Automatic annotation (TrEMBL):
<dbReference type="GO" id="GO:0005764">
    <property type="term" value="C:lysosome"/>
</dbReference>
<feature type="domain" description="CWH43-like N-terminal">
    <location>
        <begin position="8"/>
        <end position="225"/>
    </location>
</feature>
<feature type="transmembrane region" description="Helical">
    <location>
        <begin position="124"/>
        <end position="143"/>
    </location>
</feature>
<feature type="transmembrane region" description="Helical">
    <location>
        <begin position="54"/>
        <end position="73"/>
    </location>
</feature>
<dbReference type="InterPro" id="IPR019402">
    <property type="entry name" value="CWH43_N"/>
</dbReference>
<dbReference type="GO" id="GO:0010506">
    <property type="term" value="P:regulation of autophagy"/>
</dbReference>
<feature type="transmembrane region" description="Helical">
    <location>
        <begin position="197"/>
        <end position="220"/>
    </location>
</feature>
<comment type="similarity">
    <text>Belongs to the DRAM/TMEM150 family.</text>
</comment>
<dbReference type="GO" id="GO:0012505">
    <property type="term" value="C:endomembrane system"/>
</dbReference>
<protein>
    <submittedName>
        <fullName>DRAM1 protein</fullName>
    </submittedName>
</protein>
<dbReference type="InterPro" id="IPR050911">
    <property type="entry name" value="DRAM/TMEM150_Autophagy_Mod"/>
</dbReference>
<dbReference type="Pfam" id="PF10277">
    <property type="entry name" value="Frag1"/>
</dbReference>
<keyword id="KW-1133">Transmembrane helix</keyword>
<feature type="transmembrane region" description="Helical">
    <location>
        <begin position="155"/>
        <end position="177"/>
    </location>
</feature>
<keyword id="KW-0812">Transmembrane</keyword>
<keyword id="KW-0472">Membrane</keyword>
<feature type="transmembrane region" description="Helical">
    <location>
        <begin position="94"/>
        <end position="112"/>
    </location>
</feature>
Amino acid sequence: MLCCMPGVAFVPALLVSWSSAAFIISYAIAVLAGHVEPLVPYISDTGTKPPESGVFGFMINISALLAAITMYIRYLLIEKQNESSHFVRSSCNMFTLCMGLMGCTGMGIVATFQELAVPSVHDIGALVAFGSGVVYITLQSIISYKSCPRWNTHFVCHIRMAISVISCIATIPMIVFASKISMTKIDWTPGEKDYTYHFMSAICEWTVAFGFIFFFLTFIRDFQRFSIRISTEIHED
């Protein structure tokens, strides 16, 4: 069904569906195994202990790869549109891509280094993933407005900017509350020390994560009008 989509729209569609499945499946396994409480655990908490850790690591690494491919295609799309419209500097488009790829690298670090095994590396990866990701979608929102109305509708631009603003707002308390937690653990229960900080930070984390998913969902229509052709020429001596 994804392959029947016009252009390269199947790429962001696959990214959205795969990433959603990664979060949901890991969460379901972790809760059913009794490793985390059902009420808003950290995303990383749902991928710390086996068997969910294997599923989480594998699926999030694939998500990072799909996100990188999506971002690169988006870069090529803007470059192509910019040839006739000149609505954004090529350097700005490249910088936006670099920020996105940094976020993908952070995702790979989060998936590879579990929260309890190497917490410092895991936390750095999460900070890079969320921080760079928020910068990426914000810059993409600005670029969308610059390309409007020829390449984007005002409605899509408003949706993207709204997602960016919500994600930016949620990122700040996510970091602040997480910094106030004095222990690294995954089996949180209401009423214990630092639970409120954990709960609020986790809500913000899920908000930002699904903000990214919904943002990439808006790429599908743009990608329907874009196709990549790879030509191979063979020369005989």
